[in-house]
Write a structure and sequence with these properties.
Blueprint (H helix, E strand, L loop, with lengths): L2 H5 L4 E4 L3 H4 L9 E4 L1 H7 L4 E3 L17 E3 L5 H21 L3
Antiparallel strand pairs: 1-2, 3-4
Length: 99
């Protein structure tokens, strides 16, 4: 329910890694695109998990910062439901306009 409302709270962003990420084996300074894990976590916590590089054997945070990662493939159902909601709205508007 209200998939569109949830989806609309998310922001797509461009980012590049910083020097700090090199400590964890990341060396790709190309511009990336993504969403903000903390925003996703608010609406769909099951789509966010601790970043693998920051997890201790007992499930804690190595850095103490509790870095997160988004499982993007799990956002697809939200996008699909948003499209379906929007299509219903379009059809209702078309009926009102006599189309």
């Amino acid at each position: 329910k209200n998939a569109a409302e949830k989806l609309y709270t998310l922001n797509g962003v461009f980012y590049t890694q910083n020097k700090f990420a090199e400590q964890f084996g990341y060396n790709d300074y190309q511009r990336q695109v993504g969403v903000i894990a903390q925003e996703v976590q608010k609406i769909m916590p099951e789509v966010v998990k601790p970043a693998p590089f920051d997890v201790t054997e007992d499930g804690g945070s190595k850095s103490g910062e509790y870095y997160l990662t988004v499982m993007y493939e799990r956002l697809i159902p939200l996008i699909v439901e948003t499209i379906k909601e929007q299509q219903k709205e379009i059809e209702q508007l078309e009926k009102l306009n006599g189309n």
